[in-house]
Amino acid sequence: MPTLRSATLSPAPAATPSPTAATPSPAAAGTTPSSAAKRRMTARRAADSPDSPHFTSPHKSPLAGTGNFGAPKMLSASPKSSRKRLYGDLVPAERPKWNPRDPAQMQAVKEALHVATTPSCGLVCRDDEQRRVFEFCKACVQQERAGSLYVCGCPGTGKTLSISKVKQSVSRWADEMGMETPDDLSINCTNLGNTSDIFGKVRKKASGKLSPLQQLQRMFSHKESAPRRMLLVVVDEMDYLITRDRAVLHDLFMLTTHQFSRCILIGIANAIDLADRFLPKLESLNCKPLVITFRAYSKDQISNIINHRL
Ligand SMILES: Nc1ncnc2c1ncn2[C@@H]1O[C@H](COP(=O)(O)OP(=O)(O)OP(=O)(O)O)[C@@H](O)[C@H]1O
Ligand SMILES: [Mg+2]
Q1: Which of 22, 66, 229, 267 is the 20 to 30 A CA-CA neighbour of 106?
Q2: Which residues form the signal peptide (predicted)?
């Protein structure tokens, strides 16, 4: 199944910027004011063009500036536009001819496509998934109710990146709406020494005889102790929390079911069947999370992503 990881180039180049990336080309350095002005105009014209990405909603999208959530037209980048990104806005005469045997050009391509590089073009092909996660969080914040979401998909399908973009969008949206922005917390389970340490990460100020889990349960069960703000918790690499009895997973999701819970829980994992394996129990406990699956990219989607990133 194709994922971006399998399609991109492997060695990690981020620490050593390429000569092309670090040093402006003589052509670029010698840019005349008139050509710079021309480039600015071209950019402005492109932004005003009906082909530039925009939301179809008459309202200003709360997701604006967070990537390409609602921009299907962005997906049809041509190889020509990818070359343009690689060489900035150089006019055609200034652009070096694409040569895959040129080590500097190849290095620039590797850097642009490396999976550790956050794509400057934003996320491509994940508008729908991001929108669904955003809508879920938005509803929770608006109604001041707790909830849980489970995001799954193969490695490299953009789960982590998508959710971090949505998290920013939710804060920005709440801010713009004059609502209290939710507190947010991101936990990567690969950094936990012990699966139950997750509760200590959520309840940072745990003290006294009760365990962090017990404190959280108590806190969310009483009106007086419940926090005022919503708490958006993103638990990444959730597969690491699977124990034989799955108690930690259950306890974690159950935190969203307490009467005064303010917890919006987003779990991210690779295992597609994790939901099937632990959902039946959660369903019987009345805390079934909404499941959003990030499907593997198709050949065309991978091609679009690569085009955009170059
Ligand atoms: N739709 C996309 N557009 C642009 N780049 C992408 C896209 N999807 C993935 N990538 C690239 O792949 C990298 C890996 O993405 P990400 O870490 O979000 O995947 P993941 O699904 O969380 O993988 P894992 O399950 O291994 O944690 C990103 O940093 C980015 O460089
Ligand atoms: Mg990830």
Answers
A1: 66
A2: none
> 77 lies in which domain range?
4-124+298-309
Interval between CA 116 and ligand 1 midpoint (Å): 8
Cα–Cα dist 250/255, whole Å: 9
Residues 105 and 162 in one domain: no
Rounded Cα–Cα distance for residues 106 and 292 (Å): 36
Q: In angstroms, rounded to a whole number, what is the distance separating the alpha carbons of residues 243 and 222?
A: 29
Query: Measuring from each residue's beta carbon to the nearest atom of ligand 1, which residues come in under 6 Å?
Result: 4, 115, 117-119, 123-126, 153, 155-161, 270, 305, 309
Q: Whose CA is nearest to atom 24 of ligand 1?
A: 155
Can you give the pTM of this predicted structure?
0.74
Task: Give, as residue ranges, everything with CB less than 5 Å from ion ligand 2.
Answer: 160
Residue 223 has pLDDT above 50, yes or no: yes
The larger pLDDT score, comparing residue 305 to residue 48, is at: 305
Q: How many domains does the chain have?
A: 2
The percentage of residues in the chain with a pLDDT greater than 70, rounded to a whole number, is: 69
